[in-house]
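HUMAN: Please help interpret these tokens:
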Amino acid sequence: MRYWIFKSEPGCFSLDDLAKSPKQTTAWDGVRNYQARNFMRDDMKVGDLGFFYHSGKTPEIAGLVEVVREGYPDHTAQDPEAEHFDPAATPENPRWYMVDVRLVKRFTPPISRTLLRRQAALQGMELLKQGSRLSVLPCEENAFNYIRHMAESPEFSSDENF
């Protein structure tokens, strides 16, 4: 099993949107970075887990998701009406890929980026590096387990405690 971080602007698509989706499942579409595409196309497998990360003004890990469908062509790349249309994408050469993810658990409260940065165990984590911009990125198993523990532990329920 591998672990991932799925980043989205809450104004574009939030954890609430995922929770309201049929079967709390959605296609993770619109990714237009080759490295992130390769992760989805080549590396993600059904059953992999990931964090749903809200980027933007109040960055935070909002919940846990599971990959429920492995990489397949992103149809929005071939739709001229879609926001992420790519005229170079064709049925023969789809260019862009997506996976389907399902909500497993909402983190209440979410884990703020500020709190993540204060954890010595998470130093060097790709998500916390300056300039880390990929919308889909791997998460090391030890960091994943630590963050999941944070989400389930009352002592991490407030930034004020740290």
